[in-house]
Amino acid sequence: MAPTPPRDEHDEYDAYAGLVEAGEETRWAFGSGFDDPLAGVDVSVPPGADGPALAAYCLMLGDDALVLAQRLAQWCTRAPELEEEVALANIGLDLVGQTRLLYARAAAADPSVVPTLPPGSPAPPEDRLAFFRGPEEYRCVWLVEQPNGDFAATVVRLVVFAAWRLTLLGRLRTSRDPVLAAVSAKGVKEVRYHRDYAARWLLTLAGGTVESRRRTEAALESLWPCVEELGRTDDVSERLVADGVAADPAAAFEDTSAFLHRLLEEGGLRVPTGSPEPAPGTPGGRLGVHSPWLGSLLEEMQGIARAHPAGRW
Amino acid sequence: MSEVDPVWPPYEVFVRSKRGLNHVHVGSIHAADPDMALRHARDVYTRRNEGVSIWVVRSADITASSPDEKDAFFAPSGDKIYRHPTFYDVEDVPHM
Amino acid sequence: MSAEPTAPELEGFEQTLAHDQRIEPRDWMPDGYRRTLVRQIAQHAHSEIIGMQPEGTWLTTAPSLRRKAILMAKVQDEAGHGIYLYSAAETLGVDRSDLTEQLITLRQKYSSIFNYPTLSYADVGTIGWLVDGAAICNQVPLCRSSYGPYARAMIRICKEESFHQRQGFELLMTMMNGTDEQRAMVQESVDRWWWPSLMMFGPPDDASPNSARSMAWRIKRHTNDELRQRFVDMTVPQAEALGVTLPDPDLRWNAERGGYDFGEPDWDELDRVIRGEGPCNEERVTRRADAHREGGWVRAAAAAYAGKQATSA
User: Fold this and answer.
1) Which helix (H) or strand (E) holds A3?
2) Is-contact C35 C210, C-beta < 8 A?
3) What is the bridge-based pairing of β-strands B53-58 and B10-16?
4) Can you tell me which residues the record assigns to a coiled coil (chain C) (predicted)?
5) Cis ω for the linkage preceding A278 (within 30 of 0)
6) To probe the interface with C, which of A25, A32, A66, A308 has the most C CB atoms within 10 Å?
7) Is A218 an interface residue toward C (CB < 8 Å)?
8) Residue A218 burial by CB count (10 A; 0-12/13-18/19+): exposed, middle or buried?
9) Which residues of A touch C118 (CB under 8 A)?
10) Confidence (pTM)
11) Which residues share a beta bridge with C23?
């Protein structure tokens, strides 16, 4: 007796049924699904902590993440192999997720940081902060603003950034602000993976071919001047360190440097010398003074949102 | 660049999707070495956090039975060579 | 690969198909079956990878952080889907690098829909709604394709793709609830994408030379015209829910047939686009070729590094 073929169940598949189902947002990768990133979280500022300073601090960390995510998005369809396309997008997604949490924290800690739009604009605070602040209001470091360059430059930037951010977020897990502590605890897991991904690539490129080594050395030379800025402190950080809210920039930088020096040594790479950028004594990204690259990056990122200040997306 | 483009070899990927289940074959990726293969497998096949553990093995290192030996080898249980995953747990797929 | 059919082999193959069971990689199969599959799976994989481009350009301009995250996840999925499909094709004895070579030297095709430009952010929504919707109609039956690895890749892809379509519809719905300008953007976008979406099902059945054989081999399970009809029937109520007009004066319900009558797509246009005369053919292939070529030194470095590690271990 011949077996009856099973009924072609897929024929009944209604491709549109998925449109009306709710609650499956978790299907999206890496935190892209939530609408209010801090929904249900107590966002009151802890007693004795300075709300405006906390907001300014969260904007610094959020701006770093968003600007680097934007740079990583520029790799899309240009990565050296399809698997790296996926990897770079994962990192970008993590950073956008961190941005949203940090902006939401900033807006809750001090609503006055959120740009005002014409009445009736439905843009949520996180989007006002991302799309309606000019370069002078951004507080990111110069490192993340620099253009992508080749894959070696992207790897060098990423390993420096992730190593630094890991030391910051690692310390912030014990911040006196419970929201920042929770956001950091989540971020540590992500950023550790970013650092390991980039560190592994750095060793691979350093030890690969003559060409990959040459490109890696060139990338280190060109980006290293932006490393010094990561160790600087600023008024906001200083005040919050004293309150037990922020991470000590100098201590975090020391750990970062130690990691990077070990890594370069393992790859047989020389630590570059050369004058730091922004030049010592001049205000850097944390004070709103940026390299020329940030302006064009923001212009591209913000164009559509600004053309439709009352738009719904 | 004129030199021949070196091809990263394929690795087969096995994912344990939940504690208590076997690792199951889900597909393959390309990588230069096992370490990179593991990272690529994590990024490609568990990017929605579907897995708790991943194995990778170079495709060339798999010894598979040949379908010709089916009778002797697999008598009542059906073939289960590595390319015949049971991973796709159909109940999981919406509308199926 | 010699596949001179001996009686028992061919009989075994046909028995497997007759019982609606799957052909697996190490099974004997006719050369024509293998060739047809390689061509179809490769074309499908190329479509995923080329399909990243029209949407990828909006990653850096997405007007909200939520949309940016969703689009990053979506474009990343497409890279993932390309990898699943190349992986399925490789079980038939071809290499991804060879297939990539065939794509960038124009010897293999990809879906001609991706040769149309994306002109506004509404196109991100329309691609999700119409293009991914049409793709799902095409792909769901392929989950029961006779070739096991292809069918399994398709199950994974369809599962992820329903979210793609949903985000597109949701974006359009949100924009329709926004400003007049946004509503006009949505309508303009739907006007441009409607006919190309109908063409995604391929030429009419009487002009589709390979269809019959693919159906007999159960690689394909429905004709082009059947799938196109299904797509129209599912889409019209969705368009009404959105409040957009589909640009076809002949579109009307036919109670007798229990389906919608619709106008004839411009098949000459489809021929032109398939021949490479579409608005973006050259741009798409050049971008892919450049990324592949420019990534060469990175792939070489990783291979060299792996070789050195293996010998020093």
Assistant:
1) none
2) no
3) antiparallel
4) none
5) yes
6) A32
7) no
8) middle
9) none
10) 0.90
11) C147
Tell me the C-alpha to C-alpha distance, in Å, between residue C61 and each of C39, C40, C182, C224. Answer: 35, 34, 16, 36
- The confidence score (pLDDT) of residue A46 equals 86
Q: Which residues pair with A308 in a beta bridge?
A: none
With CB atoms and an 8 Å threshold, state whether C69 touches A127.
no
Q: How far is A258 from chain C (nearest CA, A)?
A: 25
Provide, as residue numbers in chain A, all residues whose Cβ is less than 8 Å from the Cβ of B96.
Answer: 9-10, 13
pLDDT at B5: 67
Backbone φ and ψ of A267, nearest 5°: -85, 5
Q: Which residues of chain C lie closer than 8 angstroms to B79, CB-CB?
A: 24
Cβ within 8 Å of C, A 122-161: 122-124, 126-127, 130-131, 150-151
Structure tokens given for C90: 């490789």
- Per residue in A264-273, pLDDT (tens digit) is 999 999 999 8
Look at residue A53 in the predicted model and tell me its pLDDT. Answer: 97
Q: How far is C29 from chain A (nearest CA, A)?
A: 21
User: Which helix H or strand E contains B54, and what residues bound it?
Assistant: strand B53-58
Overall domain count for chain B = 1
B53-58 and B24-30 beta bridge pairing = unpaired
Cβ neighbours of residue B63 closer than 8 Å, sequence gap 6 or more: none
Using the beta-carbon criterion (under 8 Å), do B5 and C26 form an inter-chain contact? Answer: no
In a domain, B38, yes or no: yes
Please tell me chain B's helix, strand, coil percentages from 3-state DSSP, rounded to the nearest 5: 25, 20, 50
Cα separation values, C178 from A19, A25, A50, A122, B53, Å: 20, 22, 37, 9, 45
Please give the Cα distance from C146 to C217 (Å, whole number): 7
CATH of the domain at A171: 1.20.1260.10
Bond before B6 cis per omega within 30 degrees: no
Which residue range is the domain that position A166 belongs to?
Answer: 49-307
In this predicted structure, the answer to whether residue A11 has a pLDDT above a threshold of 50 is no
Chain C from 199 to 238: CB within 8 A of any A CB: 221, 234, 238
Q: Taking the domains of chain C in order of start, what are their residue ranges? A: 21-312
Does pLDDT of C263 surpass 80?
yes
- CA–CA dist A205, C119 (Å, integer): 38
Q: Please indicate, yes or no, if residue A135 is contained in any of the structural domains.
A: yes
Contact A74 C60 (CB under 8 A): yes
Asked whether the beta carbons of residue B88 and residue C153 sit closer than 8 angstroms, the reply is: no
Q: Write the class of the CATH domain C21-312.
A: mainly alpha
> Could you list the residue range(s) of the whole structural domain that residue B74 is in?
10-83
ipTM: 0.93
C73 vs A30: CB contact, 8 Å cut-off? yes
Instruction: Give the one of C20, C64, C165 whose C-beta lies nearest to A5's C-beta.
Output: C20
Interchain contact, A86 vs B43, CB within 8 Å:
yes
CB atoms A203 and C305 under 8 Å: yes
Helical residues (DSSP H) of chain C, grouped into ranges: 7-18, 31-50, 52-56, 65-90, 96-104, 122-126, 132-139, 148-176, 180-199, 211-216, 224-242, 267-272, 281-294, 296-312
Residue A109 lies in a domain: yes
Q: What is the amino acid identity at position C283?
A: E
List the CATH number of the domain containing B33: 3.10.20.520
β-bridge partners, B10:
B30
Distance from CA of B27 to the nearest CA of C (A): 6
Number of domains in chain A: 1
Residue A77 backbone class (left: φ over 0; alpha: ψ -120 to 50; beta: rest):
left
The reply to whether residue A304 touches residue C162, judged by beta carbons under 8 angstroms, is no
Across the interface, whether the CB atoms of A76 and C302 are under 8 A apart is answered no
Show residues of chain A in contact with C67, CB under 8 Å: 313
More confident residue, C140 or A293: A293
Among A76, A305, A308, whose Cβ lies nearest the Cβ of C56? A76
- B4, part of any domain: no
